[in-house]
Amino acid sequence: MSKEEAYLLTEQIPTKSIVEGAFLAAITAVLFIISIYIPLLGTLVSFLCPLPIIILCLRHSVKFAIISTFISGILVTILAGPLQGLMVLLGFGILGLTLGFGIKKGLSLTDIIIIGSIASLVSKGLILLIGFWVLDLNTVLFDIEELDKIITQSLNFYSNMGLSPEQLATLKDSLTQTISIVKIAFPGMIILASIFDTILNYWVARLILRRFGYKLANFTSFSNWRASKSFFWSYLLGMVLIILGTTYNIPLLNKIGINIQVFFAVVFLIYGLSLTGFILERYKIKNFLKWVIYILVCFQPFLSQIVTWAAMLDIWIDFRRLLASRKEKIRISYLVNRIS
Description:
CATH class of the largest domain: Mainly Alpha
CATH topology of the largest domain: Arp2/3 complex 21 kDa subunit ARPC3
Shape: globular
Number of helices: 16
Oligomer: single chain
Distance between the termini: 89 Å
Strand content: under 5%
CATH architecture of the largest domain: Orthogonal Bundle
Number of domains: 2
Largest sheet: none
Structural class: mainly alpha
């Protein structure tokens, strides 16, 4: 770029915008550095990393936000190294720019989540490709010897805690089975992670941007989330593919079926938690107790299964409508008794 072109560019962009862009680029870089080096806090801070990029998209333009994103990548490269700088561009830059573009264009919440999830999936795919190429993650994730080492280390840890040989044998079977499922269902888990990543980033952005006067579309109340019939048929399709793959010895069908089942099992668990939340609200259970119950459901396999089945049944039965009509009948009966 010649000096004349650079001069014209700076003339076209107000000084205030340049200062704000540099400031938000620096904030993005700082947030990313925190997310790397501070374990627990870093996980929470990582959901704030796309926020400065979204703000730049809203206050200025997408082009200006792209330039600032590259600047933040350069800052992180200087402070932490080129690989980390690339992670900023791929991990947060793509998602932040996509969400900012969708919000600025006034897209519906559903469209924003869809394009955001696709962007997040693309960025995760690129990061994994770099990981497989540079860091040899393929060996860590899918090499049999490495996985055996992980299982052995875990068993040694639990053995030192006093578990009996029978309990260790059961634990080994469970760990082996879990790792096998994770290896097969890895694509489905990445898709789920992309959707959750987008929803959480949008939710955080909405809460913070609201304080700056931006009105972003809100999600429907969690307790009113309800699965559609297409989800049930998709889950059933996964089951059919697993049966066909096993019967006719077609591994690919089996893998696709497992990925579909894992994906929709998690989706139905979330809808089951929504139904649980609706019931708890009906009985006026306090928020703290609600979260305790949510955590118990997520970490107790038996409860998780019941809640998942309840979400599937809710598609056909509509428990919310039944509970509401039952409450109405009780209220009418009470009024009739009072009158009589």
